[in-house]
Amino acid sequence: MATITTFALGEIPEVMATTGEYPRLDRIENYLEGQTVPSICLYCAGGCGVRVTTLNGEIIETEGDPDHPINSGRLCSKPTAYPQLIYSERRILHPMKRTNPNKGENEDPGWVQITWDEAYSIITSKIQEAMENVPYKRTNTTTGKDDYYYVGKDSPVSWLGSSYLNNEECYLGRKLTALIGSNNIEHQARKCHASTVVGLANTFGFGAMTNHIIDAKNSKVFLIMSNPAESHSMEFRWVTEAILNGAKVINLDPRFNRTSTKADIYARYRSGSEAAIILGLIRYTIVNERYNKDFLETRTNAPYDLDGNFLSDWETNPDSIFGKLKALAEDYTPEEVYRISGIPVEKFDLIADTFTSIKPGNIYYAMGTTQHTNATQAIRAEAILQLLLGNMGVPGGGVNALRGISNVQGSTDMNELMHYIMGYRGPPQKETEIRRYQKWKNYDPAARGGSSDPAAVKANDNDPSYTAVEQRYYNRHFPTWNSLEYNWGMYVGTWPGVDPDNESVVCDLPVGNGYPIVALFRKIYNEDIKVLICNGENPAVSMPNAEFVRDALSKVFLVVNELFETETAWFADILLPGTVQVERSGSITNTGRWIQWRWKAIDPPGECKPDLEYITELYQKIRQDAGIKLPSERFRDDTGNDTGSRPEDCWPSPYASVFKGDPYTPEDVYKEIGAKSLDPNVRPGYVTVQPAANVIYRNSYNPNPVTELDISVDGILAKRRDTTPVDSQDAQYGYFKNWAFSWMDNQRVLYNINESNPGVKTFFAWWALNDTTWLGLDKAAIWSYYLFSGSITDVKNPLSHGIPLHNEPLESPDSELATEYPTMWGSYYTYYNVYEDIKPVDVGDSSEYPYVLTTFRLAEHMQAGALTRNLPWLVELFPEVFVEMSPTLASEIGVSSGDYVLLKTARNPDGDMVKCVVTDRIQPMTINGKTVHEVAMPWHWGFRGLSTGLSANVLTMDAVDVSAHIPEYKACLCKVEKV
Amino acid sequence: MVSIYNRPSMLFDLTKCIACRACQVACKRWNKRPAEETSLNSDPATQWTNPPRLSSNTWRLVKYKLTYDEENDEVTWTFIPYSCMHCNDPPCLPVCPTKAIYKRDDGIVHIHSERCIGCGYCIEACPYKVRFFADDGYFGIKSIYKCTYCLDRLDAGLEKTACVQACPTEALEFGEYTEMHEKARQRAKAVGGYIYGDEAPLQRGSDIGTASVYVSKAPFEELGFPTEEQRISAPFVMERILLERGGLAIFGLGVLSFLGFALWRRERIGRAKMRELSKE
Q1: CB contact under 8 A, A83 and B165
Q2: Fewer beta carbons under 10 A from the terminal one: N or C of chain A?
Q3: Which of residues 251-310 of A touch B (CB under 8 A)?
Q4: d(Cα A151, Cα B55) in Å, to the nearest integer?
Q5: Using the beta-carbon criterion (under 8 Å), do A73 and B165 form an inter-chain contact?
């Protein structure tokens, strides 16, 4: 079990001494003399600028970038301690190999230093061995011909990407896994905002924060269901500015936190009741007619019935979508909300009245909402509330998902995810889709060799053999596959393509989804997946039911690419030295979708290698040494037919091929991701209908820049650093359109039809009503086709309505509520069989585990902790892990503040010891007439690092949201005992 | 020309502070202070404050102060960043036997560390308790450390101290004395709160005002700030020290005057030698 140890802060002066010149005694002179390099912070997704001062190749100072519009020279505590990260003596400086064959928390890996070449050769031979018997060819019973493709989930090689990496590096991670036939690729985004992507994309069109960081200043009222003062301190700069302009702040949180101190109204609620609270607000809005009629009528599907007919009496007609919402929300009276959430009726009315009467209103949310088994529904409810109030597509409004890691938006966009390939476009799901794609290519016979006229593509719409849904689906996915054929040097289609229905399918994209992260670790545990390459991610701390994950990590050939020897690295077979963000260049995307460039400031120490270089070399070795081939190349070997696939021409980028000996830079990859138009010199003889590999990054690289500013950055628009407003709107709302670039098409507030640029302004949620009728894409989906399942008949399941409902967490503290609002977790979950076969979820009962356990973050620490628990200045602020509880509970179990308590959950029935902080900031709640206690624990700790402690995630639960596969970290049941 | 009007001043707006502690880390970073060995602060009233107090290695600290009104179920959690106030009339100055403490023309209270003999009288005299010993002097002699208003930055022409530059919410501001104090008054008015450190010269002709000025919604007595009585200014500090620590102080003063003389002599000899050297 994890132990609590104190740490040797005595090392600190040594750190400074051994790292030489930092901090210099004659520093002010060096500081004034040094050169400055703009970078972007590596911690949260705020996207703050960091100015690095260097002298003679050494960093003299890092501080907030005074020219940056988001932070104007300011920084929170984490990046303020940046030099201790860069020059930490705890960093890994050389590739290392494990010598101890046993793995475990108490098994020293016995590291032995090796060379990069040795590391590559061990990794590639393991990949080769694992992939030896993976089928790439199967005989089709209908056509009698051999089809060539890999099945994405059957690959024994898995990859965990990272939200700490730059866009170009994430992109190459996705490209590499696709090229070796694996869709078993996941990363942090699955665990933080997967439910946001599903919830918002199926309501609005894009699954991202709708407004941006600075936009908070335009808000007049905030509904904050996250903790920006701690988790996104610079976001709170702009909330503070709004407060100074008279904005009201409503903060909902199970525990009174640093954000609550600045709230006009604070209410505590029970973790897991978010959907009920928001549905209560929806009911309040409808009953008190606070909704925006014009907005609902023109921009949402509220006034329509399910057959797509506009109903002029939609406000009163029970058949309208609005009518259906009204009927379902009717149950969530203030009294019922009180019963479920514990928010007193009077306070709820005050909250509802405040939020629905002031415009524009802004909803902030984060993990407290996203990490539940019903998270997608809760987020949908927030989206619907904002639609009702007309708070969408306006500055100061929006549903604003605060994302956690500096490039988590970018890594999500680059789709290091098992069910997407690129730009939120999925892989082919079955071979019939590939045949259709071939037909689509045939509509525009020159799709890869002639005209790229979009009209030709649209011709596909008129094919009567497609349903309306299929047409939309294909028009959405096919251009991206086409682009990947061009940009990745692949072949997707049938051969030779003349008779798509009866030919061999040859598809280099892995077919079908892979395993989402929790199921993935079950497959790893079961040894179906044999190789895991883990880059800048720490699943041993960050995964729910972490002890099980650690067991799984002990069974797999594990490669870890890290700065520090993390808890996950402790289980690694090969440990590779990574680089800090100031040691490499690239673009990153902040939570507000700004794509910004960070410039390299210094060379990496030791043998640390930038990820772009490492991924490139790894792929080179995989190709050259392990002999891993594309299905199209196997097809060529077997039949002699050359499909024209040339991955070597396109790695790392068609703009620079390492196989041809070209020098390559992050810029080359950036160009591939977001090109506005095709460069005729790149891949001569080939064209694509979509030049940008990632459609939502389109136009971020302009090969033919026009304005002086764009020319000055060679068309790499992420590099723009001009704060001059482009027009009066820009000046008024703080868009900063000449600063970097924002997806899509530099639109700063999504769905804002009044924004003065040619961005994507409309909603474009898919909600084809049935297979033949299609309602235009310009409506937001209050009823969502893709979150509706006709096969589910249980009326308590929101998927049976297409409209959100409240459902209890899998572990509910109240058995009555658990029956009335049954959990969404169940046998219809797609990957349920993986659980059943390998490891079902350990579920605790409220009679044995009476208290609610939730987890939280601190301003001074970062996620799984490696980036802060190794920095003495930050360890000083929060040296130990703890659990917070109310004085009432503390006196019930007979402990006082600072005592050790034993925390037990169904995952960890023996319990683990942790110190408690007894605080008035937590109070018992009345849920369904009974007293319910909630305890809360920060989850940053683990057993390696300068400060070590119990990982909260050894207690949390690995059941997931049934639509988005995000684990239910935030509402578990526990027992607390005196030691 | 530096005058009371344009000398540096720091505004602490507690209504904006979110206790992210960027200032605490920025201070350590710029002033090269190592981290301290700390343990979890679980005290219900001051929980999370860490290190528990200022020290020679922690010149800026954010104090957390938690109170709970059970009847109305209302939590008040106040964050108080604090460090040397740079008094208009610093009580620490006249008690220093070796004249190590001095007030610069721009009002910054600073220490000639080579003159400090570690007697600790200034610690005794400081109403805000922001001065601390460090065992880093020669021959085991302790020296005193505290916030310097980042005078190396100011002297080099930078506009702000390290802590103020870092502050995300502009809870800390840095500027000219009159401007900051005026801003504080307006801000206090706007939030219906209180101001601290802006006192004009008061009774008995003493000036207890400080270069740093605070704004808070709650009265400062509730936040544990020294009262007017405690904030005695320079002309009266010797009197207090003698009253409170009479015997020791008189003995100490005797010894220290001797040491002061010795140091002064040493310096004189040193200078004379330097002159000789330069002649050669």
Answers
A1: no
A2: C
A3: 256, 258-262, 266
A4: 62
A5: yes
